[in-house]
Write a structure and sequence with these properties.
The chain contains 19 helices and 13 strands. It has about 500 residues and is α/β, with parallel strands linked by helices. It is an enzyme of class 1 (oxidoreductase).
Length: about 500
């Protein structure tokens, strides 16, 4: 019997069709995840209605200027190549506003337009700084969410309000299930509290208010989820919890990111030779999702909710560790291999170091391999007539480690059955267009792309500088060997003296 083969191009793209003609409102569109959501809409869904982006003035730039800067980012180059330069201006409408101020900073006319035209909302605006002052974090993350929900309740044609949260906001739950959890405090009372209290008073009370929660980010995102759950009987709302969002895997630019948060910062710090030791359980693992996969998940879930009318599932963990567990030790080893292949410019020490299970050993290594070299290098920089920088760099690293160590030395797991069930309903074409799995990922190749992209887009180190960087790192290798020999000789000599 003859068998017929199906061309996947002949299969429908039901996900893409869902957004045809619909007007979409996005907050947080200038952030890392937000940029890739906007890019995905513009590149893959040319028949959507209009994209409305909420943008606030910042650094003396008005929203229109900030949008020009945004769309000049290389991440939008493929859109311009495919659709033409004018396509973005035709499809994107800038709405001046700010989720941290009362009324969202919207004009009466803009509010009316949004209420009449919007059918889908993706609310992603938030401060992602872990050390953000509590008052600002509450006003932006929590009160901002409350005001967005109030706006959504006024929208006449609303089909979906998708709140982008984080998988790391209920840290007391060692296994995070796909369900709402009680907020750590009454979000309405916390909002009122910080509204009338002075900044210094809120800051003085922060530790007491947070309790066992380690930072203001997790606290305020958990409060925000409580508000969204409260609104679910009144509007079609869902909660999306991506884990640690990392650079692009495949499209539009492999390895691209726009920040040094999370693993990218560690890669750069280790690659430059300024991070030599970390207090971390090397056998532990975190949960990572490449930003392009996270964006696919966001849009596939939106399709499932709107087109399939699947309103039973209201919480989705966009996570990976139930399928892929990559230990800290594996990440370091893969990163080190690729740092030798694609070194950074101006390396001050050969990339190396290790993770320490003992805080005492870690602190000793910080003294010998971080602080003493930093003071010596700064002394040389000062004598050369320049402004010292290394001690300042290491103070920033130490501050970042305060956050990192908490997450690196605790362990969480995440259920993601809801997204797995949705993934199982995709046809073969949709599985390619909206990939949600990492079955074909080559970790070494991915890390190499991340380092190359960090060199180019974060550090502004051009590809033609690679040969000189490789020569420099070979020199630093022998410097590192000699330093280790001197260190062990010192330890032996000190032991004899004792």
């Amino acid at each position: 019997m003859a068998t017929s083969t199906i061309n996947i191009e002949d299969l429908p793209d039901r996900v893409g069709a869902t957004f045809t003609g619909r007007n979409i409102f996005i907050t947080g569109g200038t952030g890392f995840l937000g940029k890739v959501i906007v890019e995905k809409f513009l590149r893959c869904l040319p028949d959507l209605g209009q994209l409305y982006l909420l943008v606030r003035p910042k650094y003396g730039k008005d929203p229109a200027t900030r949008m020009e800067d945004l769309f000049n980012n290389p991440v939008f180059d493929l859109v311009k190549e495919m659709r033409g330069k004018d396509f973005i201006r035709e499809k994107v409408t800038i709405v001046s506003g700010d989720v941290s101020v009362l009324g969202l900073g919207l004009s009466e006319e803009d509010r009316k337009t949004l209420c009449e035209k919007i059918s889908i909302v993706f609310h992603g605006a938030a401060t992602v700084r872990f050390d953000e002052l509590l008052k600002r974090a509450v006003l932006l993350n929590t009160r901002g969410t409350k005001q967005m929900l109030d706006l959504a309740k006024e929208m006449k044609n609303l089909e979906l309000f998708a709140h982008i949260s984080t998988a790391y906001c209920h840290l007391e739950e060692k296994v995070l299930r796909e369900k709402p959890y009680p907020p750590p405090a009454d979000p309405h009372k916390i909002i009122k509290c910080v509204e009338w209290m002075e900044d210094d008073v809120v800051e003085a009370m922060t530790d007491k208010i947070l309790g066992d929660i380690p930072n203001t980010y997790a606290f305020t995102k958990a409060l925000s989820e409580g508000l969204v759950e409260e609104a679910m009987p009144h509007i079609p709302a869902i909660i999306l919890r991506p884990s640690i969002v990392i650079p692009v895997w495949k499209t539009p630019i492999p390895g691209w990111t726009d920040n040094i948060n999370g693993p990218t910062g560690l890669l750069i710090g280790a690659g430059k030779g300024v991070i030599r030791t970390m207090y971390c359980n090397e056998n532990g693992y975190a949960d990572y999702v490449p930003v392009d996969i996270a964006v696919n998940a966001v849009l596939v879930v939106a399709w499932n909710f709107i087109a399939n009318k699947d309103h039973e599932k209201r919480v989705y963990n966009l996570t990976s560790s139930s399928e892929f567990k990559v230990s800290w030790a594996e990440i370091i080893n893969i990163g080190r291999r690729n740092m030798e292949k694609v070194p950074l410019n101006g390396v001050v020490w050969y990339p190396g170091g290790s993770m320490k299970k003992s805080r005492f050993v870690h602190n000793v290594c910080v003294l010998f391999f971080h602080m003493i070299p930093a003071y010596l290098i700064d002394a040389l920089i000062f004598l050369a007539g320049h402004k010292p920088i290394m001690c300042r760099v290491h103070r920033r690293i130490a501050k970042g480690f305060e956050v990192f160590e908490y997450y690196a030395n605790n362990q969480w797991d995440f259920e993601n059955m809801n997204i797995a069930e949705v993934r199982a309903t995709l046809n073969e074409r949709e599985k390619v267009l909206w990939q949600l799995d990492g079955d074909d990922m080559d970790m070494d190749h991915y890390f190499e792309n991340c380092i190359r992209a960090a060199r180019l887009y974060i550090l502004n180190e051009k590809p033609e500088t690679l040969p000189s960087a490789r020569r420099h790192i070979r020199i630093m290798y022998w410097v590192d060997v000699l330093t280790k020999i001197m260190f062990f000789v010192f330890l032996i000599y000190a032991g004899f003296l004792v």
